[in-house]
Amino acid sequence: MRFEMLISSLLAFGLLAGCTEEIGFGSPPKSGATLFAQNCAICHGANARGAGAAAVNLEQVPPDLTLIAERNGGLFPSDDVLAKIHGYGGPGHFGDMPDFADIDTGENVMWETQNGQKIATPRALVALVRYLEGLQR
Ligand code: HEC
Questions:
Q1: 136: part of which helix (H) or strand (E)?
Q2: How far is 57 from 54, CA to CA, in rounded Å?
Q3: Best residue among 97, 102, 103, 135 to mutate for probing ligand 1, ranked by most atoms within 8 Å of CB
Q4: pLDDT above 60 for 123
Q5: Is residue 10 pLDDT above 70, yes or no?
Q6: pLDDT tens digits for 12-62?
Q7: Residue 22 to residues 35, 42, 65, 105: CA-CA distances in angstroms?
Q8: Does 88 lie in the same domain as 115?
Q9: What range defines the domain where residue 106 resides?
Q10: CATH number assigned to the domain comprising residue 91
Q11: Would the N or C end of the chain have less CB density within 10 A of its end CB?
């Protein structure tokens, strides 16, 4: 009897732990900087300027992500950057750049496009775009 109770409480605990993990309860949302360090720095470099450890194995040199605005006439093309990180075009959409459509999809936030449309978008993707925007020089 005691043993059964122990098992059922363990099960209940396991299930609860599973649920809380799924909705991200108890783990604060990751910042753009953390997401970048964990998912992008390996190719784009810790400072986003293009020389991550894995960059040497790629056919394409990962671009310097602090110069996106400069390459675009001084404007940060946030919709385009979001689309490239998300990978709207599907796997292999953008050369050696992986797609991150499934990154940390716990929660959606409203993304306002450059022409004012609002689209529910994974919070992590928005955090990454804002982080990159802040790095422009
Ligand atoms: C496996 C290596 C790799 C990883 C990991 C990677 N990238 Fe890339 N990324 C690339 C390459 C290579 C390109 C250039 C693709 C091209 O020009 O066709 C690129 C291009 C980009 C661009 C387009 C830049 C521009 O000027 O238009 C953005 C934005 C970008 N990456 C952001 C990210 C973010 C954010 C992450 C992490 C969530 C990430 N990348 C992870 C290799 C990588």
A1: none
A2: 6
A3: 97
A4: yes
A5: no
A6: 544 444 444 444 455 788 999 999 999 999 999 999 998 899 888 888 889
A7: 18, 26, 31, 10
A8: yes
A9: 31-135
A10: 1.10.760.10
A11: N
